[in-house]
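During the reporting period the student researcher (J.K.) took over the structure-prediction task from the postdoctoral fellow and processed the backlog of single-chain submissions. One of the processed entries is reproduced below for the supervisory committee.
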Amino acid sequence: MSAYLTRIRLNPRSALVRRDLHDAAELHKTLMRLAPDNLSNARAQAGLLFRVDETDTGPFVLAQSRLAPHPDRLPPGYGHTQVRDLTPMLEALTPGMQVRYRIAANTCKQQRLTPEQAAQGRTRGKLKALTGEEALTWWHQRAEKAGLRLLTAQPTHLPTLRSRANPGMTHSINRFDGLATITDTQALTTALLTGIGKGRSYGAGLLSLAPAPRP
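J.K. obtained the following structure tokens:
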């Protein structure tokens, strides 16, 4: 299956960029412009996953899609774009290969439904944001299901993702960087294409891989 990665070096002078960096829902809408027109189910067919990464020279966005992107559809002056076909990378994955990884994930778990919540007609308990060792355990478990055996994992707590249109929508985000060994290429490919965890429409769950440094 094909996948494409669009790297956008954001223009800090753009009012739309400044808006999107403070509103995950608006950023998602902007990035959906990369998808072609006339899709029957644009969100599902495009398979958009994205992440904002900060660097010494400013923020940039990584936007992954299953369909070839159209960077010219982004707002004028939004940023400088580079597109990479990820298909060769996906086809080169093999068990035993060591890779570097990065993921900004919505680390949370569903709490048990209390009697009070059940009496109110709720069918699920509240989501609990995980931090510290709980978040690290969450990532180890998710990585194993995604076909990775973690060798190292460096956690970094990131600002909560929010939407101005829906103030109640928040996603607690932890980024994990490290080294891992591939154990299951099929599970890993699925995780790469579909993302991991909740909040994938708001900038969480994109797993990025790169070759591990040689000893």
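The committee noted the following: The mean pLDDT is 90.
J.K. will present the remaining backlog at the next meeting.
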